Amino acid sequence: MAEQNESQDNRELYALLNLSPDASDEEIRRAYRQWAQAYHPDKYQAPHMKDIATENFQRICEAYEILSDPQKRQIYDIYGMEGLTSGLELGPTLNGAEVIKAELERLKRMKEREKLVAHFLPSGAIIANMSLPRYLDGDGLLVGMAMTSQIQSHLSKRNAFTIGGNLAVNGGEGGGAANALFRHQLSKDSSVEFVASVGLRALIGVQTTRNLSSHSTATMGVAMSLRDGSLNLSNLWTRQLSETASGHIELNLGQQSSIAVGWQKKDERRSASGELKFGTGLFEASVHCTHRFSRKSLGCIAGRVGSSSLEIEVGGGRKLSKFSSVRWLYVIGIQGISWKFELYRGGQKIILPILLTRHLNPVFAAGAFFIPASLYFGLKKFLIKPYYLRRSKQKGLEEEKESSAQVKEARTAAEKAQKLQQNVANRKRNKQLETGGLVITRALYGNQIVLSNLKSSSETSFESTSDVIDVTIPLNFLVNDSGQLKLHEGVKKSGIMGFCDPCPGRPKELYVEYVYAGNQFKVWIGDFEELQIPKGSHRI
């Protein structure tokens, strides 16, 4: 549907000459001669009318220049005006529709490759572990830090390369590692990855992924340690359980053998995941749930229990901008009571876990949760929300002002065109009245909802609304000598000379009242529908 609308929007030049997108070369030449004669500046003596005529005559000439050239017309039909300004060089070698289309595709692929080569995707994280008890004991607030960073580059549509590393310091000990990964897409259903790492976990490995069906994927890999030569085999099976849920089973065989079973479910407002993992001297179960309260705020709760851990996380987050968000989490478990602050910006994140106490004091635990939560909700109600409302209102006013200025400019252009059409439209109207032919008595174009009210309302004054424009003059102007009027299918009517788009972004339709042979008629049609009058089915 989106592609169809895009294609229809690329037909404004046809609307300008009132032509079908399938018009022949002769029909284009005939329409050009007709409209060039009607809008020629030499027909007008008054300076302001001559200026209006010159402006519209240039539009007619530009439309004819493009539609009369077979190569330019083919490009315009496929890609619109953007295609004509995309850098495509026309010449004798481009003498067919397929050749032109292939050349355009080649240029698009070349631009995509340039974008891919220049497009690096960096990501990273900084974790700074802090301890309030340690600080109170005089040993410093910072316990340890860990940093990870990686850069991914798409070498081509099939190949990607990732390089990264990590560094961790805890107390007086530290270490790090550097790794590289190369991924090659073998086909639309399978890929292979080669990985190498040096440092604390020096290893080399390979893994392959294949789509077993439209709902199932399998990944198998093998890695060898460069320290002791030990091997680790890994298998991962995932399956789509429903439109919003999936599950997985992971099996690792090696020095640290384990098996894990998990699931994930996600829709527009909620997401949840869980995993159960067993291994040599290892047991761990975890669950994580997130609920999005609005477009900018969310709440989350998570729990973990295992052979060496038992904790619950509760918190929330807020989106600060298009690329930034912040979260606060309250953590209570056998390790103590902690706060965790998380800041996300693009692919980067900063995580600050702060241990408040190692003792599970009920009063302290309640205070550590309710005091910051109450502070946040207070700030949100009296400071954050009013600020965002003011900013949203200001942005809306700016957008409305900009759109209003564009609509005003388009209305002015349409009114100027109607001034040129007025005399010819009146002559045609009088001639049709004498012969009992087709006369447009009223025509409105604009907001579909507003015009639809005419079907069930006795209201007759819709011209005053800013969402509707009166197009009685342009339609009378387009009536031919035989007393007929045709607007072609698939052509947006706002492109017709004397029309404009009074409500950008909203569905539009055309309402027409007309008389023919002493009878009254009326009809509603959609923005891209064909109009052919007179027609018996329109009779009141």
TrEMBL record:
Residues 397-430 form a coiled coil. GO terms for cellular component: membrane. It is found in: Membrane. Residues 12-80 form the J domain. InterPro entries: AtJ13, DnaJ-like_C11_C, DnaJ_domain, DnaJ_domain_CS, DNAJC11-like_beta-barrel, J_dom_sf. PROSITE patterns: DNAJ_1, DNAJ_2. The chain crosses the membrane at residues 363-383. Its main location: membrane. Keywords: Chaperone, Coiled coil, Membrane, Transmembrane, Transmembrane helix. This is Chaperone protein dnaJ 13. The gene is LOC106776415.
